[in-house]
Every structure is written in C-alpha cells, then in structure tokens.
Amino acid sequence: MSEHYYTPRPSVERDLHTIEEALRGRSFIFWTDAGVFSKKGVDYGSKLLVQTMVLSKQAKVLDVGCGYGPIGLVAAVQAEQGTVTMVDINERAIELAKRNAERNRIANVRILQSDLLAEVMDQTFDTVLTNPPIRAGKEMVHRVFEQAHHVLAPGGALWVVIQKKQGAPSAYAKLESLYSQVEEVEREKGYWIIKAVK
Questions:
Q1: Can you give the pLDDT at residue 2?
Q2: Which residues does 65 contact at the CB level (< 8 Å), separation at least 6?
Q3: pLDDT tens digits along 92-105
Q4: Taking the CB of residue 164, how many other CB atoms lie within 10 A of it?
Q5: With 0-12 CB in 10 A as exposed, 13-18 as middle and 19+ as buried, what is 189?
Q6: How would DSSP label each residue in the chain?
Q7: Which UniProt keywords apply (predicted)?
Q8: How confident is the model at residue 11, as a pLDDT?
Q9: What is the CATH code of the structural domain delimited by 16-197?
Q10: Euclidean distance between the first and the last CA atom of the chain, given in angstroms as a whole number
C-alpha cells in the first residue's frame, strides 16, 4: 500500500463501520473507515496516552493528528468545562471525528482539517496531546514538537506517546532541546509516554 493515513485525501475504497471502546471508565462508539489510522480499534499507544494524561476540567486542549477522534474526545470528557481542538490533515479522519463527537454527545470540541498545527498557530493551549504521525517521518514528528511549543501557554504541557523502536529516545532528546522540563511519565510494552513542559 503506497498511501498511508498521513494524506489529505485518502483514495483507498471506503469501509465504514463502528467499533466500541472503553476508555477512562466510559464506553465510546467510534465510526472508523479505511484510509485512517488504526481503523480496526483504538491502538495501544493511544489507549496508554488516554489512561496517563492529566488534564484540568477547564483545560484548553489541542489534539494533533486526531484521526477518528479517540484521544481528543476522551480529553473533552476530562476537560468538561474546557474546550478541545482536534486537527488532522486527513479529510476522512476529520469527517469521522465530527461524526464521533456527535455520536458520543460531546459538544466542547472543534474539529479542523490542518497540516500539523498550521490552522491553529495563532492560538494558545494549556495542553497539547499527540500520537504523532510516525510513518510521515522523523522530521514531521519533530515539527509537531516545535509547533506545539509555539502554541503552548507558559507552563503548558505536551503529552506524546511514541514507541521506543520508532524513535522514542531521539524524540526525547529533541523535546529536551525545546522544553524546560521533560519526563517519561509511563513506559509499557515498548511505548513511552513523555510529558514536556514549556
């Protein structure tokens, strides 16, 4: 398959269906489709990030590379008095994320098609969450880190999930070059959850 999920307009044939997932003590129904990341079920890394992330109830949150929405929608439930902006380059993912917000009755979200953070660079967030687009390459992942630093409020945190074999050590080093405080919050089955504070 020459095309991957990090593309504005997937050409792979549609395969729309629903999956059910229990995340942070709540059951979610998600529409998924061919041409989006982890279409058969929420991937282990995203689940680990969702279980580990710490958000205030009033947080202004950004989910980068939201896919069909599991991380951002769980964040919106956690930040029930805040707002979550969800961005992805993939128009099919954006369409699904909007349907999933509606399906799960989650209203405190904005869902935008955006090449990385391009559409939100003039905004400020308390927290940025990302399961970055590894298949798009290290340069792209590092751009997420740089752009997240730009949009974070002072003291704001970037939460990242990344597999050790897919570059967690180099990601950690890159984050240390940008952020004032970087820590590995969780490590499980080869996945690292890294928190970087501006």
A1: 37
A2: 6, 37, 87, 88, 89, 130, 131, 132, 133, 144
A3: 999 999 999 999 99
A4: 14
A5: exposed
A6: ----SSSSS--SPP--EEEEEEETTEEEEEEE-TTSTTTTS--HHHHHHHHH----TT-EEEEES-TTSHHHHHHHHHTTTSEEEEEES-HHHHHHHHHHHHHTT--SEEEEE-STTGGGTT--EEEEEE---GGG-HHHHHHHHHHHHHHEEEEEEEEEEEEGGGTHHHHHHHHHHH-SEEEEEEEETTEEEEEEE-
A7: Methyltransferase, Transferase
A8: 65
A9: 3.40.50.150
A10: 38
Quote the percentage of the chain above a pLDDT of 90. 76
* Domain boundaries, given as residue ranges, for the chain: 16-197
- Residues 69, 163: Cα–Cα separation, whole Å: 20
- In this predicted structure, the answer to whether residue 21 has a pLDDT above a threshold of 70 is yes
pLDDT of 10 reads 64
- Give the mean pLDDT of 9-16: 73
Q: Is the pLDDT reported for residue 59 higher than 80?
A: yes
The structure's pTM equals: 0.92
d(CA 12, CA 34): 7
CA distance 9 to 6: 9
